[in-house]
Amino acid sequence: MPRIPLLMPKMSMTMEFGTVEQWLVEVGGPVSDGDAVVVVTTDKVDMDVESTCDGTLAEILAQSGDQVPVGEPIAYIETEKDDLLGDLFAPAAGEGASTGSTNGAGEADSAAPVDAVSDEPVDAPQPAAQIPASAGMTEASAGMTEATERPRAVPLARKLAAEAGIDLASVQPQGPNRTIRARDVRAALESAAPPNPAVIPAHAGISSAASATSGGVSTSSTSGELLGDAKSRRIRVATARVLDATALIPQFTVWRALDLTRLAVARKASLKGVSWNTILLRAYALMLREYPSLNGRWSGDGVRTNTHIGVALAIDTPNGLLAPVLRDPQDLGIKALDAAIKDLAAAVKAGKADPSVMGGGTGTVSNLGSFGVQRFNALLTPPQATALSLGTVEVQPVFDADGSIRARTVCEAGLTVDHRVADGADAARAFATMQEILDDPFLLLG
What we know:
The protein has ten helices and 20 strands. The chain is α+β, with helices and mostly antiparallel strands. The radius of gyration is 28 Å and the shape is elongated. The N and C termini lie far apart (60 Å).
């Protein structure tokens, strides 16, 4: 009975690895074409992987928590269907093709498949039922052969091993198909003798503080307990990588108390039910449309424009901060945009958002007003050139020129800008434009 591999899918353009979260079917359990078999996750979202045929889950290669490169098998499904491709590649009648021949040297045989992890040619897989016992190797002979070959390892594992001066052949592989993963290299580092801090870089899994001592007491990073579950830790690591990059960007923040008094009246009528977050996000998108440089990115030799406006909305989820992207929100009507934001936030918090919404941002909106925060400084997310921080919307007393007091609805906002892309005066003008948009409720009705 043919065995069909179930592969780790590529769920976004930037995805290189996926992590197995939960198997929904046990070994020996029946599956149908389209059935969800396993839940896998990236740094951002969880997704179901579906069976591509009817059959039985014969073997699981990757267990919960295992990180697997895109395109690698994570399980095998046995199916009674003899030929999943039908006669798609069958030769036309009269071409002299013979069945069962193994002597041909056709074009298909001339191109040996390449292993996606080790970049080395591998033998084309055969159905398990067609491989004779004599064609296999004993475990002992297979181990001797593997010891003389280049170890299978993902690129990050090779990089970490090279930086730490570790021979990959000495690392015990724990991944599927005896693939060495980054976590295997880190485990080898932790189990080895105390390393020389001048040899192992901080990002090899041991922080620069791990070798420091205070009063003879080690401050190793392994002395404390890691907080949170595996998924929340992955999100913290992803956030840390962004912050590492943003620390290298010269950036500044300008502040302005946005006057929302006229809009406060409109929210009781034509904008009834629309959140302040939606109103301010759309005003931000309209402002970016007027300032292509602020919607652009620094490329090293100048500012390059983006062909679209993508507003990443920072959302607090049970697993940490995520920022899904709304593409061209300025083109949506205000009420349609409000509904789209609510649907997107619900999907992200439930971990069910499409991975495609996690990329393509050209600017970010972060709103902590619901927590009672009046002002904070939002950091840039490379390669985005701006980030808008929004505090609480509140009513404040103001004095008119004649000394009379009136109420004014305001929101303290901060616009953080990549200084390579624009200057302080550019940011001030952009804020002035945003205020003009907010002063005209009809511009926001769309």
